[in-house]
UniProtKB/TrEMBL annotation, chains A, B:
The active site is at C130 (acyl-thioester intermediate), H250 (proton acceptor). The gene is asd. InterPro entries: Asp-semialdehyde_DH_CS, Asp_semialdehyde_DH, Asp_semialdehyde_DH_beta, NAD(P)-bd_dom_sf, Semialdehyde_DH_NAD-bd, Semialdhyde_DH_dimer_dom. Belongs to the aspartate-semialdehyde dehydrogenase family. GO terms for biological process: 'de novo' L-methionine biosynthetic process; diaminopimelate biosynthetic process; isoleucine biosynthetic process; lysine biosynthetic process via diaminopimelate; threonine biosynthetic process. It comes from Ureibacillus chungkukjangi. Catalyzes the NADPH-dependent formation of L-aspartate-semialdehyde (L-ASA) by the reductive dephosphorylation of L-aspartyl-4-phosphate. Keywords: Amino-acid biosynthesis, Diaminopimelate biosynthesis, Lysine biosynthesis, Methionine biosynthesis, NADP, Oxidoreductase, Threonine biosynthesis. The keyword NAD does not apply. Homodimer. It catalyses: L-aspartate 4-semialdehyde + phosphate + NADP(+) = 4-phospho-L-aspartate + NADPH + H(+). Phosphate binds at R101. Residues 6-121 form the Semialdehyde dehydrogenase NAD-binding domain. This is Aspartate-semialdehyde dehydrogenase.
Length: 345, 345
C-alpha cells in the first residue's frame, strides 16, 4: 500500500471522532494530508493529531475538494447535508451516522461480514450501528457453517454510545450518589427526548426514541441493519436495547437458532478461527467477556456459549466489544483499509 | 384473622432478613410472639423489631418448639439442617434458600400463581428464586388467557441479590473509581468462587457458580423453578443471568411465545387486571419500569410490551421488581398470609 490519501474527519472532537484519530495513527493509515472539519461554530478550534496541532475548518461543500476519504461522525443531519457534497467532489464518505444506512444505494459494511458490498458504493459507505456490528461479526461465521434462522438479542449498552456528555453524566451522578445528593439527569436516555432518567445505579430500557411499533430506533437499527449486512432480508431478528451504567463496552445476550445441528464444540471451533473474534469461554476458570475488560481492545469477544436445553439447534451467546472501536471508529477505518486493498480508493 | 402466631426468623440480619422484619410490621402480620435465631456465633447479638430490642438466640432444633411459622433466610446449609427439625416440631417453614425448592415433596409457591400448592405442604414451603418470582407473576396471567409455549429471558440483576456485602462492594468500588484508585473485587460474582471481578462500571455474566451444562445455577433455578411453579414440566425456558451495578431491583428482558393469537392491547388488558402487577407501558410519555424507581415497592412492574415483528405469537416484555421484596421477603410473608387465610396455619 504505497498509496497515500487525503483524509477529512468531520466531528473529530466527539467520542467516536477521538477514537477515529487514534485508530488512524495506531493502524498507520497511509495519510498524505489530513483535515478536520466541523460546523462554523466549532471552526477555528484546535485539535491535536500525531503530535501536531491542526485548526478545525468549516465543513463547507468546497472543503471536501481533493479529499480521498471523508470520515463523518457529527450527527445525521450533518451527514445528510454534506456527505453527498463530499461524494460529488470525489471523496469516498464513510459515514458513522444512521442517516444513509438503510438506503439501498449505500453499502452498509462490516468488513468481516460483507466486504464485497464495498465495490457497489456510489461515493457513500455507511458504518453500521455499534450494537449491530459486534453481533454480526459473531453471527456470520456461525451462519456460514450452520445457517441461521432466528436471532433474539437483549443488549447491555454503555453510556459512551450516547457521547462524551453521557459519560460525564454517569460520572457526575455517581459522585452525587456517593455524596448522598439528589441525582440529576439531563442527557440519557435521549438528550432530545422529553424525559431524562438517572443512569447511575439504574438500567434504562430505552436507547434512541420510540418508533410507532413500540420498538425504539436503536432496536429497529439492530433488526434492519442485521438483515441488510447479512443479506438475509427475511431473517427473524428481535432486539431489546438497554442502557447500563458502564462507560464503554456493549454486551449482548444473544439467542440464535441455526439450520443444521451443531454442538457447542463446533461453534467454539468456528469462532476460534473467525476474523476479528476472540473466543473467551472457559467456565472452569470463570472466563467470559465483560465490558470493563474490553475497553480499548479491538476484537469482538464471545463467551458463555450454551446449547439450548429445549432446542438442539438453539444456542445462547454473550458478545462484548468496545462500542467506540469495533462498534464505530475501528470499523470505519477497517472499511477504508479494505477499500484500499481492494483498489476501491 | 383473629389468630395470632408465634414467628421465628432465622437470618434476621441479612439483606432479606431485614426486609422480612419490615414486611411483617408493614403488613400487620398477626404476631403473638417473635423470636430471632442464628448460629451460635451470632447468638447474643441484639436486633430491633417494632420498637423493641430482642436478643438473638441460638438456632438449635429445640428453639423451634412452639413456633408456628419459621422464616428461613440464612443460607442453604442452615435450612438443610434446621428446617426439617423445625417442621418436626410443628412449625411451618417458609424457606428462602434454594435447598428444598426442587424437592417434589416441597411446594414452591408464588401465591399469585400456584397458591393451591400450599395445601400439599409437609412442613416446608420453598420461596422461589428472586428472578423467577417476578417473571412468573407476569407470565401466569398471560398463560391463563393465551397459553405459553416458550420463554427466553436475559436478566439485569441487582447486587443486593448477593447480600449486604455485595452492596457494600459496589459502593466501595464506585468511590474507588471516583477517586481514580484501583478497584478491588472480593465478593462478586460469587464469594466462594475462585475469581472475583469488579461490578462498578461493569456487568458480569455470572450469578452463582456454573453447572456442567454451561448454565449457572441461577440460570438453572430460573429454568427449573418456572416449570415447577407453573406446573409446566415441558415448557421450554432459557435464561441468561447477568449482574449489573444496580443496588436493588432486578430487570428482565423476556421473550415469550403464546399458544393463541393475541394483540399487545389484549396483553395490556390481561396484565392491568392481574394481581401483584403494575402495567407501566406508555411510550408516548417514556413510561417503562426501571430498577431505581421500584426500590421499596411491592408490585411487579411490566412494560415495553411489543409483538414480535416476525412472529405474531411472540411478545417481548420488560419486567422489573424489587428483588428483596416480591423477589424474597414479601413473597415469603404473602405465603404465610395465604396459609392463614386458607386455614393451613
Amino acid at each position: 500500500m504505497a498509496k497515500e490519501l487525503t483524509v477529512a474527519i468531520v466531528g473529530a472532537t466527539g467520542a467516536v471522532g477521538t477514537q477515529m484519530k487514534e485508530q488512524l495513527l495506531k493502524r498507520n493509515f497511509p495519510i498524505k494530508h489530513i483535515k478536520f472539519l466541523a460546523s462554523a461554530r466549532s471552526a477555528g478550534t484546535e485539535v491535536e493529531f500525531g503530535g501536531k496541532t491542526y485548526t478545525i475548518e468549516e465543513a463547507t461543500p468546497e472543503a471536501f475538494e481533493g479529499v480521498d476519504v471523508a470520515l463523518f461522525s457529527a450527527g445525521g443531519s450533518v451527514s445528510a447535508k454534506l456527505a453527498p457534497e463530499a461524494a460529488k467532489r470525489g471523496a469516498v464518505v464513510i459515514d458513522n451516522t444512521s442517516h444513509f444506512r438503510m438506503d439501498p444505494n449505500v453499502p452498509l459494511v462490516v468488513p468481516e461480514v460483507n466486504r464485497e458490498d464495498l465495490a457497489k458504493h456510489n461515493g457513500i459507505i455507511a458504518n453500521p450501528n455499534c450494537s449491530t456490528i459486534q453481533m454480526v461479526v459473531a453471527l456470520e461465521p456461525i451462519r456460514e457453517q450452520f445457517g441461521l434462522k432466528n436471532v433474539i438479542v437483549s443488549t447491555y449498552q454503555a453510556v459512551s454510545g450516547s457521547g462524551v456528555s453521557a459519560i460525564e453524566e454517569l460520572r457526575e451522578q455517581s459522585a452525587e450518589w456517593e455524596a448522598g445528593k439528589n441525582v440529576e439527569a439531563k442527557i440519557l436516555p435521549v438528550k432530545s427526548d422529553k424525559k431524562h432518567y438517572p443512569i447511575a445505579r439504574n438500567v434504562i430500557p430505552q436507547i434512541d426514541v420510540f418508533t410507532d411499533n413500540g420498538f425504539t430506533y436503536e432496536e429497529m437499527k439492530m433488526i434492519n441493519e442485521t438483515k441488510k449486512i447479512m443479506h438475509m432480508p427475511d431473517l427473524p431478528v428481535a432486539a431489546t436495547c438497554v442502557r447500563v451504567p458502564v462507560v464503554s463496552g456493549h454486551s449482548e445476550s444473544v439467542y440464535i437458532e441455526v439450520e443444521k445441528e451443531a454442538s457447542v464444540q463446533e461453534i467454539f471451533d468456528v469462532l476460534r478461527n473467525a476474523p476479528g473474534i476472540v473466543l473467551q469461554d472457559d467456565i472452569s476458570t470463570q472466563d467470559y467477556p465483560m465490558p470493563l475488560f474490553v475497553e480499548g481492545e479491538d476484537p469482538v469477544y464471545v463467551g458463555r456459549i450454551r446449547q439450548d436445553l429445549s432446542n438442539k439447534k438453539g444456542f445462547h451467546l454473550w458478545i462484548v466489544s468496545d462500542n467506540l472501536l469495533k462498534g464505530a471508529a475501528l470499523n470505519s477505518i477497517q472499511i477504508a483499509e479494505s477499500m484500499l486493498e481492494d483498489n476501491l480508493l
